[in-house]
Design a protein that fits this description.
Blueprint (H helix, E strand, L loop, with lengths): L1 H22 L4 E9 L4 E6 L10 E7 L13 E9 L2 E9 L2
Parallel strand pairs: 3-5
Antiparallel strand pairs: 1-2, 1-4, 2-3, 4-5
């Protein structure tokens, strides 16, 4: 019985690994070129975005949370996470680089 319980616990632990990995994707780096507070959009000159298999370029992203834009100005170096939702690319997390 003890071996069965250990096996079950190990299976649950392994099942959680993909979920945990997707929530901790690496942040990409870039530079804010333009901020549209009202439209909740940013233009980013960014390096590679690995989870989207996207090479470095400059492009516009929607920002999921308007509060992420507070305190940022054009020219700031930033770290961010982005995902594709439908036909749009969305920044889901955005912070000023140190």
């Amino acid at each position: 019985m003890k071996k069965v319980m250990i096996l079950v616990l190990m299976m649950f632990g392994l099942a959680a690994v993909p979920v945990m990995a997707s929530n901790h994707q690496a942040m990409s780096e870039g530079e804010l070129r333009k901020i549209d507070q009202v439209g909740q959009r940013v233009t980013l000159r960014h390096g590679p975005i690995n989870n989207l298999k996207m090479p470095p370029m400059t492009m516009v992203f929607r920002v999921e949370n308007a509060a992420d834009l507070e305190g940022l100005t054009a020219g700031d170096k930033v770290r961010f996470r982005a995902d594709k939702q439908g036909d749009s690319y969305i920044v889901t997390e955005l912070e000023k680089s140190e």
